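Continuing the batch. This is chain 6 of the set; chains 1 through 5 are on the previous pages. Same settings as before, nothing changed between runs. Recording input and output for traceability.
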Amino acid sequence: MFGARDTATGYHTAGSRDLDGSSSDAGEETHGYSSEDQGSDASDDIAITDYKRKHTGRCIPICTAKCCCHICYVIQFMLYIVVFPLWCKYLVTAPMPYEYWNGEFPAFPLVKPLDRTDIAVRAKVNPQIVISKVPTGESACNYSCSKELYGYETDEMNFPLSLQLNNPDLVKEHAHTLFPVILTSGDFKHWMLAADSRNAQPNPFFRARSSDTGEGYEMVTDTCTQKPKSSFGTQATYVLACITWQPSSLTALKAIKQIATTSGLAELCDSVGGVCGWPCGTFLESDRLPACTAQGIIDVEAMSDAHVPEADFGGHVSIEACQSQDPKEQCQTSTTKFQQWSCHNCMADVVEGDDEEDSADGADEDGDEAGGDSPIGDPMAGIEGAGAIGAPPEIRRLRQGARRLQESLEDEDTRVVYKSLPRMNVKLSEAQVPKGTDLLTTPRVFMLVASKLEGPWQKLYMEPDPTDPDAPTPPVPLLGRDPKTIKPDRVLVLEDPDIKHSMKISNLNDLKIEPTSCYGRRGPLYVVACAINETTYTDTAKFKRFQPGQKIAPPPFNDRCLAVAGRCGQACMHDQTPMQYCDANGYIIQKHLVGEIKIQDNKTLPVYLFVYVLIFGFCVKVVMLCPGIFSPYPHYKRYEPHLTRAIKYIVTCTPTTAGDENKSTTIRNLVGCISAMPRRLQCRYHVVMLDETHRLEMGVTFQRLGEVIDAIPSGGSDSYQDMITDFFGAWCEDTKKLDLNKIGVTAKVLDPSVLERVCGKGAYKKLRKESAWARLDAQSVGLLEKALDAFEADIARDNKWTRQDMHKDDVMDWAPRDKRCMLRMHYIARAKPIEDERTNRVQHVAPGTWYYKVPVKSATNDKWLEMRKGAREMVYGREDEDNEHHIVPLRTSRGKAGGLNFVENYMVVVAEREENQYAGRDDNPQNSAPCLFSIADARHQFQHDFMASTIPYFFDPSGSLNLKVAFTQCPQHFHESQDKTDYLDTNNASFFRLNCMIRNCSGGVSSCGTNGTWMISHKSPSTIWEHQRGRVRDRETKSKILEIVERRTFHESCKVEDTASSLQAVVQGRHSQFINRKLSYGMAKAAVGYLAATQRWAEGGVVLSLQTLTSFREQGHWMVFVTLLFFAAFVASLLRLINIDDANAEWVVVKLGLLSSETMELLLTPLQKSVYWVIGHMFEAKLLGTGIKDPQVYTFMVMQFVMWLLMLVLCMFLLWCVTSFCKIFRRRCCTFPDQLRWCGRLLITMDNLTYFVWFWTAFFWIGFNYYTAVTRSHYHFQFEGMMFFMGIVNILNWGMIISNAFRYSLSQSMEANEVAHLSMDNIWRSNQLFYMTAPVQLFSIVVGFKEFLRWQFYGMDISFWEGGDRGDTATSIVKYWTLMLVIGPFVCWTCYAIFAHEYMNAWAACVVVSIIGMDVLHPCAYLWVGDSKLTKDEASKMSWKQALTSPAWWKRQIYCLVLNDTLTGILKYVGPAYFLLLPAMCLSTTYFGVNGAFMMVAQTQQR
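Output for chain 6:
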């Protein structure tokens, strides 16, 4: 039944109905549609109640699974508070791994390990390296070095240097071969490398370490050895150099032919050394032989222990092969093993008796199965148990080949050709000259050879005998010549035997540097000689080669040099001005070259930057997680009809505008609102259609819907209200899965099946078949069928709109024919006058705006609509001067908030009408009770159990109305956007399924507009007008005067009225309840619409934040300020914790005078010792790395952190004390948080007001990774320490997510048997959103500042938006931004392949940017090709030429390639797999740990 417009229908309260008596029928709401079902449910209810009564004596579980999850969450949160800041402190405090020191300079080998860096400091000699003077004459310098650089000569120069190493202590330090490096500087601050071992002569290294051992001796042997009895390589061979200083030993060695046993060497030799194995390129390993190393060197100590225990051989003897066998050429030695020596052919005369001797020797030594007369020796000789009979086949083949070789080489004449060992260079070093006077001036050396270690030892070379004219001539090397062409006259003349065995002296510790690069310019010059250890110099894994001119880290140099000294002077200049750091002798003072090595850490600008980012992210993450430590507010567990007696009325409002919100969309919404009416309701239930665009056709559709409801029959035992609930419940179920593609504006003509569902015919047919409706006769349902036909015809008409009298309010009320039915419906179209486009759209009365008059004294609510009818436009110059009336703006908000406030005020007026008063009027407390106001945006349809599920949350467990509950909120759910295909996260699942569940623990879930239900109460009596202080100064008084406006329940200051209203509820001490169930089904917007909403939320958040921070005097806003200050103090304390690095810094409590330094030291000493002990054990367990072990650094770090933690605990305790005090005296003091949960809500409010501030973290992290991918980084962390912390934080982060999600899923399953769980898709989409929306938030900040200034200084209305608002701009920003992120990894990997592969962390950064690219791949593809309309059949009919030139074909290919379930299933696990592998990946490079830390604190919040 409809009344006239602008008036209420004749509604009469059913006085005959006893509302109080219905409570006895209270029971669980039934969702069926038949009376039988309802009765059955009631009987089941009784049975269940009886069952519960029988089991009330059972014990309540002490700890349920839900409780365990909550405890786990709290413990993990506390650990997270402890571990993450400690990790950040570790990143900047922990020593850098030693191998990465001086990373800002080119690679330079370091002395390893670190404790050996004091070798150069402890040296007892000075200088450690004697260096020739810096030349002072201009002609003494070489200026040609600059010509290669510039093409012409400059004053840059170099000069040769003479070096002499003089540090005998290096022997004790086990320093191996030392290489020279020359460093130069002009100012002692900036150093460069000028020369290294490549410029050294005669050797590239120091062959001795001091002057005492620096005198070495060497001798080059003859080219040919004597003809061996057995060919070299066919038997084991020991070649020994016997060196003596004694004349008697020299005489004895000349006289004897062999030394029978090894023990005889002790009498004749002062020093011995040699090589061993099977020479001439054989394959046998030399370490098979006794006292023979794998390098083919005789182990003199092992040989002495076995055969010459009494010997005391001194010095070091080495034998190396010469590369050239031409005696005319200088011997350039080779470092190859003995077995790899290249033997050569020599020719010698055949001496009588050789054959017999060879045969005899062969029979005695070989004993082979051929008769033992072979001259070939046993290749395995010298190896115990390796006789000829048991020799392997390859050895036997070697013997046979040797025999054939010897036989083929024997000449028919008296000469024989044989294999000889190469020329050898024998060196003696580190030998002390024996004491005494009867000594040779230089030592003599004799070369001996044996096939066994125990001997006998034969002379390797022929001894010349000048006194014997018949002595054979020495062997001749063939050198590739034919033996027959060598004439006797070419035989070499015999050499003097004394010269033959003499060794020449050489200074092994002397080198000469012939530089090729310049030292610097003429003038002040510092030259430093550095001796580098062999093992570090040859470490090719991290060091390739010195580059002349490369920059060098300044002194001290003892971390790189085992010995160091320096010269200084005015190079190439006669004027020798004294120089700093120099002594009188021209040497650099040693203390300036060596000193204490300061442990290097990662306190660099990049490290501080990303640690600061981690700290900011951690603080925001703490704000997000902190509310989860509380338990959610309890509520009544079920809907019971008697609960609604505490409510004055319930309103469900459907605001509609243009766009997709046409007839079908709006009707779907209204159907849901009506179906949500609970059964056996005991308060009015109002359904309001708020038409913000004044569409007359929409009003007609509303009337047709009322006619349908009027036509619903009353069925048997079911009341009329129950029949309405049954019908609309089925109608809601039939339409909840519709989407905008089927009923939106894009569907010009509705499909018949869809139209049948929208108009209700589908639901009617189902009811007629499947429920009690089947028993209704045709006459009973005839009117309903006609009404549905008319309703279908109305919906099927084109959505063409007619608008008139838009400056007036258009209101229609509907009441049911059965006055006992609690349902009421209202069509409201508030005034929307056309405004002068030249004037600003302000929220106060000003020229160009519309206003109406309100009497100063006699204004009442029932005259409100009448007064609004007289609205007029204020014209400049004709302002209304009326002291008897207030002038009130017709619309203070042109947006959604203004419409909601109009509806709320209208419902107050309706409720005050006499026909709408409950029995008893003023005596009935229900007439002054609060009301519930639900908001269902036009694309969101309430389900039939929405209100029955929501109402209990406004009551405490005892069933009393809880006035502290401000509102309830249900998540948005878009059924067509499944998690896998929700490419833009339109469901905002991570926010609703994680953030909201955490926030609900402190009652701090913010309203999201739609799906929210507010509890509204007004003081009685009250009017719908209120005062406000104007934002714009009055033209005459020049001050901000009080204005009269209509009452505003919902904030009209910005576009996010829901968040602003939530803020107001929080500061008043009220809380919210979150119902994590699918109680509403929405229809997802297009991509442009969703991104426009995202941009609008961020812009509104910016405006609301600025409004809050600039309105300190507003009620309760000071709490937000205080919360922000606490948060800033928390951040500042962490930053101070990170920055402080002075171990001797005074504690804050001591500075403040709270404690004396002595008392503080007394308190901290036991703790410090305990921490030191723990750190020491952690080093032993290698949890902090195996590099630099400095427990003091970590102890200082932990002590600082412990003090910070104690201060934090103290602050929290004080906060608890204050809130507890306020809870006791809250009625006698001003509004102040009286619960820690209230403080948690304030944190959430602060987060809502500042979340956009952290947009830059996404830009920073993306830029940081790209920077790292293409540049050299100079920060490195301990692998084990990073892995340790990374593993712990990873476990805590995921543990909190899992425990919180599981806690709520258990609660939901027990309450409603419905679980909305957090999936991997949701977490993945959240990461996508973090990167994707960063530029949109930046854009929103800029626009938000602009909008705030318009609101603040001009009083403009910024609470509304038109059309897509800035959706197109937001979409374009996201499209190109994500495309750049997808293309970026290809650029990075290209750079990595070209040059960045040389950088330590480059490949890790490339991996990270690749993961970022994969994260945004789906949104990018969806925005670019998601609108692909080319079908598969159309694509298959295209030719290749058509396909390749068709953008539509390419769109379809990309769509099919990227937007498919397979790739989605793979990509969504890339992120979680990456997180799981992060601790292990930290062992390859610690950069992964940094990235993991950032991703664990990064978050995106939409509301």
